[in-house]
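Table 4 source record.
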Amino acid sequence: MSADEIRGEAHGTAPVPLSVLDLVTVGAGRTASDALRTSVAISRLAESRGYHRYWVAEHHSMPGVASSSPAVILAHLAAHTERIRLGSGGVMLPNHAPLVIAEQFGTLEAMAPGRVDLGLGRAPGTDGATAAALRRTERLNEGADDFPQQLAELTRFLDDDFPDGHPYGRIHAVPGPVQATSPGGAQSPHRPPIWLLGSSGFSARLAGVLGLPFAFAHHFSAQNTVPALDLYRESFRPSEVLDAPYALIGVAALAADEEREARRQVLAAALNMVRLRSGRPGLVPTPEEAEAYDFSPMEREFVTSWNANVVHGTPDEVRAGLDDLQKRTGADELMITSNAHSGDIRLRSYELIADAYGLPGGPGSA
């Protein structure tokens, strides 16, 4: 593993590398199968147009989000792509045994050598009751509080380097490095890079102290973005992984051929968030349903605040908004999540953003 497997390359006129964050959203009247077919289509478009990486986020018990099993989805995407980096944005480590994650991502690395990322979060990615069901415990803070220890354990499984005398010293994550040290063995030189994800300062500081790359969830915690990135950079200590900080931010952005259509689509996505935040998660509504919905004053205030952090409009407007965000935050990479009711709208958004930046494979490309 090297910094070359972490740092991306900007293409066209983009100020930094552009990547994709996929929630595998399911719209009203659509199925999870439809959403997964859209994910394949977007991953292939992203690869052909020069997006750097494609991450899938772990969520649970949300009808409109079909990404409960990132490793399974990534295996599917690996079979349909050849070059683009694939990863989790992220796996919620407290929900899983570290050995299981090491085995899953070792398997993914064997499927797609040299292009797998392991992004880790410490939140449950769901509500408290679902978190209890996932963890088989009533002590919901147990996993989050133990995150640094879980991270250290996972890292040792990935590197197969528990010290002599450790209770897990004779346990090996397979596929993994132990295969190279077995008689007649050979093993890929790659190991999935670990990223820490966060929406506050905890993971920012931890990533900095450990010298790991950091991904911040600007798309749902915009007020904390700059303070968290500052904390990451201030805390950073060079490591075998990175000699300097590298931070990406998740950005909600949607481009459409017409500004009005972009507004309609983000209103529907915002209504979905209104329902989620009020304990009524469901499928992503259609723009028509959102336009007909009677928002209360409090809900309207939430929608206005939420959509203020969604970069949306025509391709030129989205490009300008992304450029401004990158300048304000100094992010080393922008990871775009385009949420909408229709898979075709999402696919078109990534295509229009690529065109706006003159990424490879677009109109006029050789």
